[in-house]
Amino acid sequence: MSSTSPILNRAVSSFPSVCIPSTRGVSPVEVTLIGQIGHGAGTQLVREVSARQSTHGSFVNALDEPSAKIGGVHSEAGDRSSLYSFVVGNLGHPFHRHAGNRVFTAISGSGGAQLRFSDAALEGLEQSPQAFVDSMQLVDIPPDCLFTVRFGSGTWHQFAPLDQVSRNPAFLALSCHTDELAGLQQESQRADVLANRASIASLTEVLPESVQALVDVALRDPDRVRRTALSLEAPADSWRSWLCLTVRGVIGRWRGAWGAWKNQSGFASLSMPELRVEPIRTAPAESLLHSAFAGQRIDHDDSFRCVLRDNQLRGRSASELLDALLQAFVDHPPSGVSGLMMLRNALVRPLRLRRSHLGCPISSLASSERGTLFACRHPVLAQAVSEEGDLAQVLLGADDRHLRFRTCVAVRKIGPERVEFVLSSRVHCLNAFGCFYMAAIDRVHRRYVSPTLLRSAVAAVLTPAVIAGTGVTTSLAAEA
After folding, report:
1. Which secondary structure element, helix H or strand E, spans residue 391, and what is its range?
2. Which of 174, 225, 252, 380 has its CA 20 to 30 A from that of 433?
3. What sign results for the dihedral spanned by CA atoms 427, 428, 430, 432?
4. Residue-by-residue pLDDT tens, the chain, 480 positions
5. What strands, in cross-sheet order, belong to the sheet with 278-279?
6. What is the four-CA torsion angle of 246, 248, 251, 253, rounded to 10 degrees?
7. Judging by DSSP bridges, how do beta strands 267-269 and 473-475 pair with one another?
Protein backbone atom coordinates (compact mmCIF):
# COMPACT_ATOMS: atom_id res chain seq x y z
CA MET A 1 0.00 0.00 0.00
CA SER A 2 1.59 3.26 -1.09
CA SER A 3 0.95 6.61 0.55
CA THR A 4 1.86 10.27 0.05
CA SER A 5 1.44 11.05 3.76
CA PRO A 6 4.55 11.67 5.91
CA ILE A 7 6.03 8.49 7.40
CA LEU A 8 7.81 8.46 10.77
CA ASN A 9 10.23 5.54 11.15
CA ARG A 10 11.38 4.61 14.64
CA ALA A 11 13.92 1.89 15.37
CA VAL A 12 13.19 -0.36 18.40
CA SER A 13 15.58 -2.70 20.17
CA SER A 14 12.97 -5.25 21.22
CA PHE A 15 9.61 -6.35 19.78
CA PRO A 16 8.04 -3.80 17.39
CA SER A 17 4.56 -3.06 18.72
CA VAL A 18 1.69 -0.62 18.67
CA CYS A 19 -0.95 0.20 21.30
CA ILE A 20 -4.22 1.83 20.23
CA PRO A 21 -6.16 3.21 23.23
CA SER A 22 -9.92 2.79 23.47
CA THR A 23 -12.35 5.66 23.98
CA ARG A 24 -14.99 3.28 25.37
CA GLY A 25 -13.14 2.28 28.53
CA VAL A 26 -12.20 -1.22 27.37
CA SER A 27 -8.74 -2.73 26.88
CA PRO A 28 -6.68 -1.14 24.11
CA VAL A 29 -5.67 -2.83 20.89
CA GLU A 30 -2.14 -4.22 21.29
CA VAL A 31 -0.22 -5.73 18.37
CA THR A 32 3.34 -7.04 18.76
CA LEU A 33 5.75 -8.58 16.26
CA ILE A 34 7.69 -11.49 17.74
CA GLY A 35 9.85 -12.85 14.92
CA GLN A 36 10.11 -13.76 11.26
CA ILE A 37 10.29 -17.27 9.80
CA GLY A 38 11.75 -18.56 6.55
CA HIS A 39 10.86 -17.22 3.11
CA GLY A 40 7.47 -18.62 2.06
CA ALA A 41 7.07 -20.62 5.27
CA GLY A 42 4.07 -18.57 6.41
CA THR A 43 1.84 -19.47 3.48
CA GLN A 44 2.99 -23.09 3.58
CA LEU A 45 2.05 -23.32 7.26
CA VAL A 46 -1.32 -21.65 6.68
CA ARG A 47 -2.15 -24.14 3.91
CA GLU A 48 -1.09 -27.12 6.00
CA VAL A 49 -3.09 -25.98 9.02
CA SER A 50 -6.11 -25.17 6.84
CA ALA A 51 -6.16 -28.71 5.48
CA ARG A 52 -5.79 -30.23 8.93
CA GLN A 53 -8.33 -27.85 10.48
CA SER A 54 -10.94 -28.76 7.87
CA THR A 55 -11.00 -32.38 9.12
CA HIS A 56 -11.52 -31.44 12.78
CA GLY A 57 -14.78 -32.48 14.37
CA SER A 58 -15.68 -28.90 15.35
CA PHE A 59 -14.73 -27.29 12.01
CA VAL A 60 -16.94 -24.35 10.99
CA ASN A 61 -16.58 -22.51 7.69
CA ALA A 62 -18.44 -19.23 8.10
CA LEU A 63 -17.90 -15.46 7.67
CA ASP A 64 -14.80 -16.10 5.51
CA GLU A 65 -13.03 -17.23 8.68
CA PRO A 66 -12.84 -21.06 8.80
CA SER A 67 -12.17 -22.17 12.35
CA ALA A 68 -12.14 -25.12 14.75
CA LYS A 69 -12.62 -25.25 18.50
CA ILE A 70 -9.63 -27.19 19.81
CA GLY A 71 -10.31 -26.57 23.50
CA GLY A 72 -13.75 -25.94 25.01
CA VAL A 73 -14.99 -24.62 28.36
CA HIS A 74 -14.85 -26.80 31.47
CA SER A 75 -17.68 -25.31 33.49
CA GLU A 76 -17.49 -28.06 36.12
CA ALA A 77 -13.97 -26.83 36.93
CA GLY A 78 -14.90 -23.16 36.77
CA ASP A 79 -12.93 -22.69 33.53
CA ARG A 80 -14.85 -20.62 30.97
CA SER A 81 -12.02 -20.16 28.47
CA SER A 82 -11.89 -21.67 25.00
CA LEU A 83 -9.18 -22.14 22.40
CA TYR A 84 -9.76 -21.87 18.66
CA SER A 85 -7.71 -22.13 15.50
CA PHE A 86 -8.81 -19.91 12.62
CA VAL A 87 -7.56 -18.89 9.19
CA VAL A 88 -8.04 -15.68 7.21
CA GLY A 89 -7.64 -16.31 3.49
CA ASN A 90 -6.51 -14.11 0.62
CA LEU A 91 -9.91 -12.35 0.42
CA GLY A 92 -10.04 -11.31 4.07
CA HIS A 93 -13.30 -11.15 5.99
CA PRO A 94 -15.90 -8.48 6.91
CA PHE A 95 -15.67 -6.10 9.87
CA HIS A 96 -17.15 -7.65 12.99
CA ARG A 97 -16.93 -7.64 16.79
CA HIS A 98 -17.34 -9.94 19.81
CA ALA A 99 -18.82 -9.46 23.25
CA GLY A 100 -15.68 -10.67 25.04
CA ASN A 101 -11.98 -9.84 25.04
CA ARG A 102 -9.79 -11.53 22.49
CA VAL A 103 -6.15 -12.65 22.57
CA PHE A 104 -4.51 -14.54 19.73
CA THR A 105 -1.11 -15.51 18.37
CA ALA A 106 -0.74 -15.72 14.60
CA ILE A 107 1.64 -16.32 11.71
CA SER A 108 1.16 -14.14 8.66
CA GLY A 109 1.11 -15.49 5.15
CA SER A 110 3.94 -14.76 2.75
CA GLY A 111 2.16 -11.67 1.42
CA GLY A 112 1.78 -10.03 4.82
CA ALA A 113 -1.42 -9.05 6.60
CA GLN A 114 -3.34 -5.93 7.50
CA LEU A 115 -5.26 -5.62 10.76
CA ARG A 116 -8.05 -3.05 10.78
CA PHE A 117 -9.67 -1.75 13.97
CA SER A 118 -12.38 0.73 14.87
CA ASP A 119 -13.37 1.83 18.36
CA ALA A 120 -16.78 3.13 17.29
CA ALA A 121 -19.89 2.18 19.23
CA LEU A 122 -22.73 0.41 17.44
CA GLU A 123 -25.30 3.01 18.52
CA GLY A 124 -25.74 5.69 15.89
CA LEU A 125 -23.67 4.00 13.17
CA GLU A 126 -26.58 3.79 10.75
CA GLN A 127 -27.22 7.55 11.12
CA SER A 128 -23.54 8.58 11.16
CA PRO A 129 -21.44 5.86 9.52
CA GLN A 130 -18.60 8.32 8.95
CA ALA A 131 -17.83 8.10 12.69
CA PHE A 132 -16.79 4.49 12.14
CA VAL A 133 -14.33 5.43 9.40
CA ASP A 134 -12.96 8.33 11.45
CA SER A 135 -12.04 5.97 14.31
CA MET A 136 -10.42 3.35 12.06
CA GLN A 137 -6.73 2.50 12.41
CA LEU A 138 -4.70 0.03 10.36
CA VAL A 139 -1.75 -2.11 11.42
CA ASP A 140 0.44 -3.67 8.72
CA ILE A 141 2.16 -7.00 9.45
CA PRO A 142 5.09 -8.10 7.27
CA PRO A 143 5.13 -11.52 5.54
CA ASP A 144 6.04 -14.77 7.31
CA CYS A 145 5.89 -13.23 10.80
CA LEU A 146 4.88 -14.48 14.24
CA PHE A 147 2.81 -11.82 16.02
CA THR A 148 0.33 -11.36 18.85
CA VAL A 149 -2.92 -9.39 19.02
CA ARG A 150 -5.00 -8.38 22.01
CA PHE A 151 -8.09 -6.16 22.18
CA GLY A 152 -11.08 -5.44 24.38
CA SER A 153 -14.73 -6.41 24.10
CA GLY A 154 -16.79 -4.75 21.41
CA THR A 155 -13.79 -3.68 19.30
CA TRP A 156 -14.61 -3.78 15.61
CA HIS A 157 -11.94 -5.54 13.59
CA GLN A 158 -11.27 -6.82 10.09
CA PHE A 159 -8.28 -8.83 8.84
CA ALA A 160 -7.04 -9.10 5.26
CA PRO A 161 -3.86 -9.62 3.21
CA LEU A 162 -1.55 -6.62 3.04
CA ASP A 163 -2.01 -6.53 -0.74
CA GLN A 164 -5.68 -6.55 -1.70
CA VAL A 165 -4.96 -8.65 -4.82
CA SER A 166 -2.62 -11.07 -3.04
CA ARG A 167 -2.81 -14.78 -3.73
CA ASN A 168 -1.31 -15.53 -0.31
CA PRO A 169 -3.56 -15.99 2.74
CA ALA A 170 -3.52 -13.32 5.46
CA PHE A 171 -2.65 -15.51 8.45
CA LEU A 172 -3.52 -18.41 10.70
CA ALA A 173 -4.08 -17.91 14.41
CA LEU A 174 -4.63 -19.61 17.74
CA SER A 175 -7.18 -17.53 19.62
CA CYS A 176 -7.82 -17.76 23.35
CA HIS A 177 -11.24 -16.60 24.51
CA THR A 178 -10.34 -15.96 28.13
CA ASP A 179 -13.98 -15.88 29.26
CA GLU A 180 -16.40 -17.23 26.69
CA LEU A 181 -19.43 -15.98 28.65
CA ALA A 182 -18.17 -12.42 29.09
CA GLY A 183 -20.60 -9.84 27.73
CA LEU A 184 -23.11 -12.33 26.35
CA GLN A 185 -26.69 -11.20 26.92
CA GLN A 186 -28.66 -13.83 25.03
CA GLU A 187 -29.49 -16.93 27.08
CA SER A 188 -29.30 -19.12 23.97
CA GLN A 189 -25.68 -18.05 23.41
CA ARG A 190 -24.79 -18.65 27.06
CA ALA A 191 -26.36 -22.11 26.90
CA ASP A 192 -24.39 -22.93 23.74
CA VAL A 193 -21.15 -21.84 25.40
CA LEU A 194 -21.71 -24.00 28.48
CA ALA A 195 -22.62 -26.97 26.28
CA ASN A 196 -19.54 -26.37 24.08
CA ARG A 197 -21.74 -25.81 21.04
CA ALA A 198 -20.56 -22.24 20.47
CA SER A 199 -18.24 -21.28 17.62
CA ILE A 200 -16.44 -18.13 16.55
CA ALA A 201 -19.21 -17.45 14.01
CA SER A 202 -22.01 -17.87 16.56
CA LEU A 203 -20.33 -15.32 18.86
CA THR A 204 -19.80 -12.75 16.09
CA GLU A 205 -21.72 -9.58 15.23
CA VAL A 206 -21.11 -8.36 11.68
CA LEU A 207 -20.92 -4.66 10.75
CA PRO A 208 -24.05 -3.39 8.95
CA GLU A 209 -23.65 -3.56 5.16
CA SER A 210 -24.19 0.17 4.69
CA VAL A 211 -21.25 0.96 6.97
CA GLN A 212 -19.07 -1.78 5.43
CA ALA A 213 -19.62 -0.21 2.00
CA LEU A 214 -18.33 3.13 3.29
CA VAL A 215 -15.31 1.38 4.80
CA ASP A 216 -14.49 -0.29 1.47
CA VAL A 217 -14.45 3.12 -0.22
CA ALA A 218 -12.20 4.61 2.48
CA LEU A 219 -9.70 1.75 2.20
CA ARG A 220 -9.09 2.56 -1.47
CA ASP A 221 -7.46 5.83 -0.39
CA PRO A 222 -4.55 5.06 1.98
CA ASP A 223 -4.25 8.70 3.06
CA ARG A 224 -7.72 8.72 4.65
CA VAL A 225 -6.95 6.20 7.41
CA ARG A 226 -4.19 6.25 10.03
CA ARG A 227 -1.78 3.36 9.51
CA THR A 228 1.03 1.84 11.56
CA ALA A 229 3.43 -0.52 9.79
CA LEU A 230 5.41 -2.92 11.95
CA SER A 231 8.47 -4.61 10.48
CA LEU A 232 11.62 -6.47 11.39
CA GLU A 233 14.00 -6.48 8.41
CA ALA A 234 13.52 -3.00 6.93
CA PRO A 235 11.37 0.13 7.45
CA ALA A 236 7.97 0.13 5.76
CA ASP A 237 7.78 1.62 2.26
CA SER A 238 11.53 1.19 1.73
CA TRP A 239 12.91 -0.62 -1.31
CA ARG A 240 14.20 -3.40 0.96
CA SER A 241 10.72 -3.85 2.40
CA TRP A 242 9.22 -3.99 -1.10
CA LEU A 243 11.82 -6.54 -2.22
CA CYS A 244 11.21 -8.70 0.87
CA LEU A 245 7.45 -8.64 0.29
CA THR A 246 7.83 -9.51 -3.39
CA VAL A 247 10.28 -12.38 -2.95
CA ARG A 248 8.48 -13.90 0.01
CA GLY A 249 5.14 -13.64 -1.79
CA VAL A 250 6.38 -15.56 -4.83
CA ILE A 251 8.09 -18.26 -2.77
CA GLY A 252 5.05 -18.49 -0.51
CA ARG A 253 2.73 -19.36 -3.38
CA TRP A 254 4.99 -22.28 -4.36
CA ARG A 255 5.45 -23.51 -0.80
CA GLY A 256 1.75 -23.01 -0.12
CA ALA A 257 0.82 -25.29 -3.01
CA TRP A 258 3.08 -27.95 -1.55
CA GLY A 259 1.62 -27.47 1.95
CA ALA A 260 -1.93 -27.93 0.67
CA TRP A 261 -1.04 -31.01 -1.39
CA LYS A 262 1.06 -33.08 0.98
CA ASN A 263 -0.35 -35.63 3.43
CA GLN A 264 -1.85 -33.93 6.50
CA SER A 265 -2.05 -36.92 8.82
CA GLY A 266 -0.77 -36.67 12.38
CA PHE A 267 -0.07 -38.96 15.29
CA ALA A 268 -0.62 -38.93 19.05
CA SER A 269 1.49 -41.41 21.00
CA LEU A 270 0.96 -41.73 24.73
CA SER A 271 3.58 -43.08 27.12
CA MET A 272 1.93 -44.50 30.23
CA PRO A 273 3.53 -45.19 33.61
CA GLU A 274 4.26 -48.90 33.91
CA LEU A 275 1.23 -50.84 35.05
CA ARG A 276 1.83 -53.74 37.41
CA VAL A 277 0.38 -56.97 36.04
CA GLU A 278 0.87 -59.94 38.35
CA PRO A 279 0.16 -63.66 37.90
CA ILE A 280 -2.35 -65.31 40.23
CA ARG A 281 -2.55 -69.02 40.94
CA THR A 282 -5.99 -69.53 39.46
CA ALA A 283 -8.98 -67.56 38.25
CA PRO A 284 -11.19 -66.01 40.99
CA ALA A 285 -13.83 -68.32 42.45
CA GLU A 286 -16.70 -66.53 40.70
CA SER A 287 -15.00 -66.64 37.28
CA LEU A 288 -16.94 -68.00 34.31
CA LEU A 289 -13.78 -69.89 33.38
CA HIS A 290 -14.49 -72.58 35.97
CA SER A 291 -17.41 -73.81 33.88
CA ALA A 292 -15.13 -74.39 30.88
CA PHE A 293 -14.04 -77.96 30.08
CA ALA A 294 -15.80 -79.35 33.15
CA GLY A 295 -14.67 -82.94 33.74
CA GLN A 296 -12.02 -82.71 31.00
CA ARG A 297 -8.26 -82.49 31.20
CA ILE A 298 -6.81 -78.96 31.44
CA ASP A 299 -3.52 -78.73 29.53
CA HIS A 300 -2.85 -75.05 30.16
CA ASP A 301 -4.13 -72.68 32.85
CA ASP A 302 -2.97 -69.12 33.57
CA SER A 303 -4.42 -66.00 35.16
CA PHE A 304 -3.23 -62.39 35.49
CA ARG A 305 -4.59 -59.32 37.19
CA CYS A 306 -3.99 -55.57 37.29
CA VAL A 307 -5.35 -53.46 40.17
CA LEU A 308 -5.89 -49.69 39.87
CA ARG A 309 -7.36 -46.94 42.01
CA ASP A 310 -10.96 -46.16 41.08
CA ASN A 311 -10.27 -42.41 40.78
CA GLN A 312 -7.92 -43.18 37.90
CA LEU A 313 -10.93 -44.55 35.99
CA ARG A 314 -13.32 -41.64 36.62
CA GLY A 315 -15.78 -43.75 38.63
CA ARG A 316 -17.06 -45.77 35.67
CA SER A 317 -19.08 -48.90 36.39
CA ALA A 318 -17.70 -52.41 36.05
CA SER A 319 -19.74 -52.99 32.87
CA GLU A 320 -18.53 -49.74 31.30
CA LEU A 321 -14.94 -50.61 32.12
CA LEU A 322 -15.29 -54.13 30.72
CA ASP A 323 -16.77 -52.73 27.52
CA ALA A 324 -13.81 -50.33 27.24
CA LEU A 325 -11.33 -53.10 28.03
CA LEU A 326 -12.67 -55.42 25.33
CA GLN A 327 -12.62 -52.62 22.78
CA ALA A 328 -9.04 -51.79 23.81
CA PHE A 329 -8.00 -55.39 23.08
CA VAL A 330 -9.26 -54.86 19.53
CA ASP A 331 -8.14 -51.27 18.92
CA HIS A 332 -4.74 -51.26 20.63
CA PRO A 333 -3.01 -54.64 20.23
CA PRO A 334 0.61 -54.53 21.48
CA SER A 335 3.01 -54.43 18.54
CA GLY A 336 5.14 -57.27 19.94
CA VAL A 337 2.17 -59.59 20.29
CA SER A 338 0.95 -58.64 16.81
CA GLY A 339 4.39 -59.53 15.42
CA LEU A 340 4.30 -62.94 17.09
CA MET A 341 0.82 -63.57 15.72
CA MET A 342 1.98 -62.73 12.18
CA LEU A 343 4.79 -65.27 12.56
CA ARG A 344 2.45 -67.87 14.06
CA ASN A 345 -0.14 -67.35 11.28
CA ALA A 346 2.50 -67.87 8.60
CA LEU A 347 3.75 -71.10 10.23
CA VAL A 348 0.31 -72.70 10.73
CA ARG A 349 -1.20 -71.70 7.38
CA PRO A 350 -0.14 -75.00 5.70
CA LEU A 351 -1.76 -76.89 8.60
CA ARG A 352 -5.09 -75.14 8.03
CA LEU A 353 -5.32 -73.97 11.64
CA ARG A 354 -7.38 -71.04 12.79
CA ARG A 355 -5.66 -67.65 12.31
CA SER A 356 -6.23 -64.19 13.82
CA HIS A 357 -4.36 -60.89 14.02
CA LEU A 358 -5.25 -60.60 17.73
CA GLY A 359 -3.38 -62.40 20.51
CA CYS A 360 -4.66 -65.92 21.05
CA PRO A 361 -6.37 -65.44 24.45
CA ILE A 362 -8.70 -62.76 23.09
CA SER A 363 -8.63 -63.61 19.36
CA SER A 364 -12.33 -64.52 19.28
CA LEU A 365 -13.15 -60.80 19.70
CA ALA A 366 -12.35 -60.52 15.99
CA SER A 367 -15.00 -63.10 15.15
CA SER A 368 -17.89 -62.21 12.88
CA GLU A 369 -20.29 -64.23 15.06
CA ARG A 370 -23.14 -62.12 16.43
CA GLY A 371 -25.09 -64.69 18.43
CA THR A 372 -24.21 -63.41 21.90
CA LEU A 373 -22.92 -59.86 22.27
CA PHE A 374 -21.68 -57.97 25.29
CA ALA A 375 -22.56 -54.25 25.24
CA CYS A 376 -24.21 -54.92 21.85
CA ARG A 377 -20.85 -55.19 20.05
CA HIS A 378 -18.44 -57.76 21.47
CA PRO A 379 -18.94 -61.43 20.42
CA VAL A 380 -18.74 -63.66 23.50
CA LEU A 381 -19.62 -67.21 24.54
CA ALA A 382 -21.15 -66.14 27.86
CA GLN A 383 -21.46 -63.05 30.03
CA ALA A 384 -22.45 -62.15 33.57
CA VAL A 385 -22.94 -58.97 35.61
CA SER A 386 -23.52 -59.19 39.36
CA GLU A 387 -26.72 -57.80 40.87
CA GLU A 388 -24.70 -55.16 42.72
CA GLY A 389 -22.97 -54.16 39.47
CA ASP A 390 -19.52 -54.52 41.00
CA LEU A 391 -18.49 -57.48 38.81
CA ALA A 392 -18.76 -57.85 35.04
CA GLN A 393 -17.20 -60.69 33.08
CA VAL A 394 -17.34 -62.42 29.71
CA LEU A 395 -16.18 -65.79 28.40
CA LEU A 396 -14.28 -65.85 25.11
CA GLY A 397 -12.91 -68.77 23.16
CA ALA A 398 -12.85 -70.91 20.06
CA ASP A 399 -12.34 -74.53 18.96
CA ASP A 400 -9.62 -75.50 16.53
CA ARG A 401 -8.35 -78.77 14.98
CA HIS A 402 -5.66 -79.27 17.64
CA LEU A 403 -7.07 -77.59 20.76
CA ARG A 404 -9.88 -75.66 22.38
CA PHE A 405 -9.34 -72.52 24.47
CA ARG A 406 -11.48 -70.42 26.77
CA THR A 407 -10.64 -67.02 28.25
CA CYS A 408 -12.45 -65.08 30.95
CA VAL A 409 -12.07 -61.29 31.01
CA ALA A 410 -13.40 -59.75 34.21
CA VAL A 411 -13.61 -56.35 35.88
CA ARG A 412 -14.36 -56.23 39.61
CA LYS A 413 -14.74 -53.21 41.85
CA ILE A 414 -13.10 -53.82 45.22
CA GLY A 415 -14.66 -51.49 47.74
CA PRO A 416 -14.92 -47.78 46.93
CA GLU A 417 -11.29 -47.26 45.91
CA ARG A 418 -9.94 -50.12 43.77
CA VAL A 419 -10.74 -51.85 40.48
CA GLU A 420 -9.35 -55.25 39.48
CA PHE A 421 -8.88 -56.35 35.85
CA VAL A 422 -8.40 -60.10 35.35
CA LEU A 423 -7.45 -62.12 32.26
CA SER A 424 -7.65 -65.91 32.74
CA SER A 425 -7.18 -68.66 30.13
CA ARG A 426 -7.57 -72.44 29.87
CA VAL A 427 -6.65 -74.82 27.04
CA HIS A 428 -7.80 -78.38 26.35
CA CYS A 429 -5.70 -80.21 23.76
CA LEU A 430 -7.49 -82.50 21.32
CA ASN A 431 -4.53 -84.50 20.04
CA ALA A 432 -0.78 -85.02 20.29
CA PHE A 433 -0.05 -82.08 18.02
CA GLY A 434 -2.07 -79.84 20.32
CA CYS A 435 0.05 -80.96 23.27
CA PHE A 436 3.24 -80.33 21.30
CA TYR A 437 1.95 -76.89 20.22
CA MET A 438 1.16 -75.83 23.81
CA ALA A 439 4.49 -77.09 25.08
CA ALA A 440 6.22 -74.95 22.45
CA ILE A 441 4.37 -71.71 23.29
CA ASP A 442 3.68 -72.19 27.02
CA ARG A 443 6.60 -70.12 28.27
CA VAL A 444 6.13 -67.14 25.94
CA HIS A 445 2.38 -67.28 26.54
CA ARG A 446 2.77 -67.01 30.34
CA ARG A 447 5.75 -64.64 30.40
CA TYR A 448 4.79 -62.29 27.60
CA VAL A 449 1.57 -62.68 25.61
CA SER A 450 -1.09 -62.72 28.33
CA PRO A 451 0.40 -60.10 30.69
CA THR A 452 1.24 -57.78 27.79
CA LEU A 453 -2.27 -58.02 26.35
CA LEU A 454 -3.75 -57.10 29.71
CA ARG A 455 -1.29 -54.28 30.38
CA SER A 456 -1.81 -52.71 26.96
CA ALA A 457 -5.60 -52.83 27.18
CA VAL A 458 -5.72 -51.39 30.71
CA ALA A 459 -3.37 -48.60 29.60
CA ALA A 460 -5.80 -47.75 26.78
CA VAL A 461 -8.73 -47.70 29.22
CA LEU A 462 -6.79 -45.20 31.33
CA THR A 463 -6.32 -42.97 28.31
CA PRO A 464 -8.66 -39.95 28.03
CA ALA A 465 -11.61 -40.61 25.77
CA VAL A 466 -10.42 -38.10 23.18
CA ILE A 467 -6.69 -37.78 22.49
CA ALA A 468 -6.94 -35.85 19.31
CA GLY A 469 -9.36 -34.42 16.80
CA THR A 470 -11.23 -36.18 14.05
CA GLY A 471 -8.96 -37.85 11.55
CA VAL A 472 -6.01 -38.44 13.86
CA THR A 473 -4.82 -42.00 14.29
CA THR A 474 -3.64 -42.81 17.80
CA SER A 475 -1.22 -45.59 18.65
CA LEU A 476 -1.02 -46.89 22.19
CA ALA A 477 1.15 -49.82 23.17
CA ALA A 478 2.35 -51.00 26.54
CA GLU A 479 5.06 -53.61 26.22
CA ALA A 480 6.42 -55.85 28.97
Report:
1. strand 391-399
2. 380
3. positive
4. 444 444 556 777 789 999 999 888 889 999 999 999 988 888 989 999 998 898 888 899 988 889 999 888 888 888 889 999 999 988 888 889 998 899 999 999 999 999 999 988 777 666 677 888 888 899 999 999 999 999 999 899 999 998 877 789 999 999 999 888 888 888 888 888 888 888 888 888 888 887 888 888 888 776 778 888 898 877 777 777 777 777 787 777 788 777 767 666 676 666 666 788 999 988 898 999 998 888 889 999 999 999 988 666 777 888 999 999 999 999 888 889 988 888 888 888 888 888 888 888 988 898 877 788 998 999 999 999 998 888 999 999 899 889 999 999 999 988 778 899 999 999 999 999 989 989 998 999 999 999 999 998 988 887 754 344 433 333 333 333
5. 278-279, 300-309, 418-429, 403-414, 391-399, 382-385
6. -80
7. parallel
CA gyration radius for the chain?
Answer: 31
CB 420 within 8 A of CB 461: no
Closest CA to 68 of 48, 52, 79: 52
By residue count, the chain amounts to 480
Which residues in 188-257 belong to E strands, given as ranges? 205-206, 226-229
Checking DSSP bridges between strand 102-108 and strand 145-151, what pairing results, if any?
A: antiparallel
Q: How many CB atoms lie within 10 A of CB 479?
A: 12
Give the integer Cα–Cα distance in Å for 386 and 217.
74
